[in-house]
Amino acid sequence: MSRAGSRKIFAGKSLFVALMAAACLLITGVLVFLWWVQGVGLSALHPLLPVITSYSLGFLILVMVTGTSLLLVTTLLGKDILLTRLLRGLAIRLLLPLIEFIGRLAGIHRDRIRQSFISMNNSLVISQLPRIKADRVLILLPHCLQLADCDIKVTGDIGKCVRCNRCDISGLAGLAEKYRIHISVVTGGTLARKVIMEKRPKLIVAVACEGDLTSGIRDCYPLPVLGILNERPFGPCFNTSVDTAKIDEALRAIVG
Q1: Three-state DSSP string of 159-209
Q2: How far is CA 211 from CA 5, 102, 143, 155, 200, in A?
Q3: Domain harbouring 185, CATH code
Q4: For residues 72 and 248, what is the distance between their CA atoms, to the nearest angstrom?
Q5: Residues 112 and 183 in one domain
Q6: What ranges in the chain are assigned the alpha helix state H?
Q7: Within this chain, do residues 188 and 92 fall inside the same structural domain, yes or no?
Q8: Which of 41, 88, 147, 225 has the least C-beta neighbours within 10 A?
Q9: pTM
C-alpha cells in the first residue's frame, strides 16, 4: 500500500494508542493497590494467602503490561509482531469499554475515540492478513449511501444499479466488478449477519458510521473487519457518501 493510502485508512490512531496506554496504567495501578491491600488483611486468615494472591496479581500485571505493550508496538509499526489476533481481541473486548470511559472523563467525544479505534483496528487487520483471494472478501455498504429519492432499490442486489453516478453506489459497484468481489447493500445488522453467513468471507470491508462500525467490528470478532467511515453531509442515515479511493486503496492492499 502507498504511504498516502496508509494515511487515509489509518489516520488518527494515535488518540486510541494514548488512551490505551492510560488504560494500561489504570489497570496496573488497580492491581498494585489490590496487591497492597491483600497483603495487609489476608495474612490474618492464612499465612500462605498473601503469597498466593501476590503471585496471581503479579501474573495479571505481567500479562496486562506485556499484552498492551505488544499491542502498542504492533499498532504503531503496522507490522504483525506477535499474537496480533489475540491482541486485537484484547483491544476490542476489554480495553475499548474502559478507554471510552476514560475518554468521557477527559471530555473527549465518543465518536473521536471510535474513529481512532477503527484506525487502530485497520492497522492491526492489515498487519496480520496475508493476501486474500477476491472471492473471500465481502464489501458491506449501508443503504443510506443510495439517494433517498432513487426509484431503484439496490438492497440485496447492487447489480440493479443503473450507474447514473448520482451517488457513490455506482462507483462502488464498479470497484466490485474490477476486483470481482462480493458486495452487498444492507439495511442493518440482521441483514448484514445473514449476508455474512451466506458468503462466509475471510475479510469484511465495511462502510458505516462510527457506532455501527465499532459494534460490527466487535460482533464479528475474530473475523477481521476493515472499517471505512462514511461521510454525512445531510445528517446520519440520509444520503451519505464515502471516499471510494479509500476502499480502492484497501482492496489493493489485501486482494491477491
Answers
A1: HHCCCCCCCCHHHHHHHHHHHCCEEEEECCHHHHHHHHHHHCCCEEEEEEC
A2: 23, 18, 16, 21, 23
A3: 3.40.50
A4: 27
A5: no
A6: 3-10, 13-41, 49-77, 84-89, 96-105, 110-128, 169-179, 189-199, 210-220, 244-254
A7: no
A8: 41
A9: 0.80
Check: CB of residue 172 under 8 Å from CB of residue 161. Answer: no
**93 vs 111 pLDDT, higher one:** 111
To the nearest 10°, report the CA torsion of 156, 159, 163, 165: 30
**What grid cell was written down for 182?**
462480493
Is the CB of residue 251 less than 8 Å from the CB of residue 136?
no
> What is the chain's mean pLDDT, rounded?
82
* Digit-coded pLDDT (tens) for 97-145: 888 888 888 899 999 999 999 988 888 888 777 788 888 999 999 999 9
What pLDDT, in 10s, does the model give residues 138-185? 999 999 999 999 988 888 788 888 888 899 999 999 888 889 999 999
Residue 217: CA count within 13 A, CB half-sphere:
31
**20 and 113 together in one domain:** yes
Q: In angstroms, how far is CA 230 from the centroid of its own chain? A: 14
Q: Show which of 127, 160, 193 is a domain's final residue.
A: 127
